[in-house]
């Protein structure tokens, strides 16, 4: 990512679109990016502060509010992503600059968002079990001493979601997803 940013800055752009270029892009880009950013921040905060998350979730009203908000954000991200995928498939100019890796990443992102919504609906109180089961697992990875017992005990859909996240993170440097390191700052300037 550092090499691409310093040597090939434009290669980090999303290429196929300009920031808020049109109505269709607006209704796909804004809901997708804002929702995804908020969901990511929620995951990150739970990872970094699992005890605080569990303390917050100890009040049922706050836990329910968190769960409803997280699912709503996931559904909004799904709507935005589907809008962007439809735009990619129906706009000839966008199709002309679409690479096979763009399709792979969009399919992976779609799978991640669908799995996330499925988990939110089918496996309630995700913020609590994320804090108690997945946070210690992720911290164990950073310590280079993986403790996989908790993850192996989780349902397959959650394991698939975790594996999908690792795959997307692995692919970031090789795809246009790397545009997040330039964020919309270049566009705004």
Secondary-structure map with pairings?
Layout: H1 2-7, H2 23-48, H3 50-57, H4 60-90, H5 92-96, H6 100-122, H7 126-142, H8 149-152, H9 156-171, H10 185-188
Characterise this structure:
There is one protein chain. The chain is mainly α. 74% of the residues lie in helices and 0% in strands. The protein has ten helices and no strands. It has helices at residues 2-7, 23-48, 50-57, 60-90, 92-96, 100-122, 126-142, 149-152, 156-171, 185-188. Helix 6 (100-122) runs antiparallel to helix 9 (156-171). The radius of gyration is 18 Å and the shape is globular.
Q: Please give the share of residues in helix.
A: over 70%
Low-confidence stretches: none
Biggest beta sheet summary: none
Residues in β-strands, percent: under 5%
Average pLDDT rating:
86
| Number of distinct beta strands | 0
The secondary-structure class comes to: mainly alpha
What is the number of helical segments per DSSP (H or I, 4+ residues)? 10
Shape verdict: globular
Gyration radius, in Å: 18 Å
* End-to-end CA span: 22 Å
What order do the helices and strands follow? HHHHHHHHHH
């Amino acid at each position: 990512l550092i090499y691409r940013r310093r040597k090939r800055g434009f290669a980090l752009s999303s290429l196929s679109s300009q920031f808020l270029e049109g109505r269709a892009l607006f209704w796909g880009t804004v809901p997708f990016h804002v929702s995804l950013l908020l969901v990511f921040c929620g995951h990150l905060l739970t990872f970094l502060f699992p005890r605080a998350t569990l303390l917050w979730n100890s009040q049922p009203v706050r836990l329910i509010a968190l769960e409803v908000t997280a699912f709503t954000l996931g559904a909004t991200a799904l709507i935005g992503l589907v809008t962007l995928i439809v735009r990619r498939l129906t706009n000839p100019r966008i199709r002309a600059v679409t690479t096979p890796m763009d399709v792979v990443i969009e399919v992976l992102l779609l799978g991640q968002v669908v799995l996330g919504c499925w988990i939110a609906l089918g496996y309630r109180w995700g913020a609590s079990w994320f804090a108690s089961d997945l946070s210690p697992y992720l911290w164990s990875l950073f310590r280079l001493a993986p403790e996989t017992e908790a993850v192996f005990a989780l349902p397959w859909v959650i394991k698939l979601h975790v594996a999908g996240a690792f795959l997307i993170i692995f692919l970031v440097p090789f795809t246009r997803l790397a545009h997040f390191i330039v964020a919309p700052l270049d566009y705004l300037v």
